[in-house]
Amino acid sequence: MFQRRLLTLCLFLGVLSLTGCASRSKSMLSPGTDLSTIKTVYVVKQPKDNKDIDDLIKTNLEKRGFKVIKGPQLSSPYPADAAVTYVDRWYWDLTMYLIELTINLRDPQSGFPLAMGNAMHTSLNRKSPELMVDEVVTNMLTAPKQ
User: Fold this and answer.
1) How confident is the model at residue 3 (pLDDT cuts 50, 70, 90)?
2) Which of 33, 75, 80, 140 has its CA 20 to 30 A from that of 19?
3) 49: pLDDT strictly greater than 80
4) Contacts of 30 (CB under 8 A, 6+ apart)
């Protein structure tokens, strides 16, 4: 009886320990979207972004050859070929870290999403914000056509 309870406890702890290792990375390109026509991008700073994710996105896109403008949310149209919006989720686990980042590349006139990238890394697989931005932008720009 004791051995059975010990085995059950070990299995439970093993499964519980694996939950900290979760990670996910995905992207999507809207049908008919040609990202090669995009040369300038407007990065919309989120009002509550005190971690400067907009600066990281701007720097990453500039390294890829885009001309990048960043600023507050505007009423359409944005003064660029595309607008970038993002959602960053932070989590506390001994330190604050970026658990999930979603970036949307949008039509500057209508706001319709042209491409989307997302990455989530829990505590044991955490990445720096710079690496998360790079992962999401890479996935978004190399998303397979639908």
Assistant:
1) low
2) 140
3) no
4) 112, 113, 114, 115, 146
Residue numbers of the domain that contains 114: 33-141
CA distance 135 to 132: 5
The answer to whether position 37 is within a domain reads: yes
At residue 10, does pLDDT exceed 50? Answer: no
- Looking at the structure of the chain, the number of domains it has is 1
pTM over 0.85: no
Q: Tell me the three state secondary structure of residue 37.
A: helix
Residue 9 is predicted with a pLDDT of: 46
Q: What are phi and psi of 100, to 5 degrees?
A: -150, 140
* Torsions phi, psi for 136 (to 5 deg): -70, -45
Positions of E strands within the chain: 23-29, 40-44, 67-71, 82-93, 95-106, 113-121
CA atoms of 143 and 87, how far apart (whole Å): 19
Q: How far is residue 28's CA from residue 63's CA, in Å, rounded to a whole number?
A: 22
19: amino acid identity, one letter: T
